[in-house]
Amino acid sequence: MDGMIPLHVFLGTLFLCQTGIGVLGNSILLSFFIFTHRKLRATNQIISQLTLANFLSVLSRGIPMTISAFGVKDFLDDTWCKIDFYLQRVSRGCSLWSTCLLSGFQAVVISPNTSPWNELKARAPKYIIPSCLFCWIFSLFSEAGVIVGMKGPRSSNNSSVITFDLIFCTWKNPARYFILLTTFQDVFCVGLMICISSYKIILLRKHYQQVQHLYWTSCYLRASPEIRVTRSILLLVFIFVSFYLINCIFAMSHNIFLYSSRWLVNGSAFCVLCFPTISPFLLISRDGQIARACCAPIDKHKHEPPA
Q: Is 301 exposed, middle or buried (0-12, 13-18, 19+ CB in 10 A)?
């Protein structure tokens, strides 16, 4: 028993590693989008917004969870609790809408010319920037309600009101309309992503059946860029929905049974942070343009002659 790692050290190290990996991956992607001299593809314009939202999510949730897991208490007052939790909610909402937008845009791109989306296919890139702005504006305004009830941990003495203990902050009397709006938004976006992903899987299966005979006559046949990007987005959506559904189990305990504990909050935070931590490395590994740009400095350093 003496050789066992204390629970707070284990949790603190876990959140520290998760936050560090998430910041690293999203920083690499953001650096690529900021410093690239080429015009970004329409898909990458959405991914850049998703990366920014994930970066804010990792910072606003990962850092406080790491500090609190190591046993530091009351490090945020009422004002900073409002700011931090508001950033958590805005980044989460923007990540949700951006993932949904990314999935929908790619479905339009790969849709056949005979589909009802054919007329929209040519105009879709023009709507990317306005759609990304809508994601941020909607999230900024729709999440403003969290500011009212968010308090510091020392403000949770009155047991007559409903409170959600977030370890380092307390959410008092969450408005019912806010919970309903959040639930409707989540159900709508996740349901839409599942429907769009099912549609894309059907399209990919039809495409595979059409070109299947080519695989018998060719030793090697690379998939088109659109197909490769679609597979990557499908995997991204699958990861997002999987961790979202797992987190729903924790959220149900908060919202329905009004039950809260440290392991419940820690488990929920870990699941929420998994997607913004994993997604940048998935996108880097499956996007040749980004992977080459990220590996270029390493390759250049390897081929430099010794001094």
A: exposed
Q: Do 50 and 95 form a contact (C-beta atoms < 8 A)?
A: yes
What is d(CA 47, CA 29) in angstroms, rounded to the nearest whole number? Answer: 9
- Residue in the structure block whose two tokens are 């910072």: 59
Residues in a beta bridge with 150: 171
Could you give the 3-state DSSP secondary structure of residue 36? coil
Q: How many residues does the chain have?
A: 307
Mean pLDDT of the 87-104 span: 92
Q: Which burial class, exposed, middle or buried, applies to 27 when counting CB atoms under 10 A from its CB (0-12, 13-18, 19+)? A: middle
Contact call for residues 76 and 84 (beta carbons, < 8 A): yes
Token pair recorded at residue 248? 């729903």
Q: Is 122 helix (H, G, I), strand (E, B) or coil?
A: helix
Q: Which residues of 78-98 are buried (b: 16+ CB within 10 A; e: fewer)?
A: eeebbebbbbbbbbbbbbbbb
Q: Kindly report the backbone phi and psi dihedral angles of residue 171, in degrees, each rounded to the nearest multiple of 5, phi listed first.
A: -105, 110
* Rounded Cα distance, 56 and 23, in Å: 9
Q: Which alpha helices (DSSP H) does 39-127 contain, by range?
A: 42-57, 63-69, 78-110, 118-123
Q: What is the pLDDT of residues 133-161, one digit of tens each?
A: 999 999 998 888 777 767 766 554 554 44
Q: Which of 235, 229, 226, 228 is nearest to 111 (CA)?
A: 226
- 52 or 44: which leads in pLDDT: 52
The one-letter amino acid code at 180 reads L
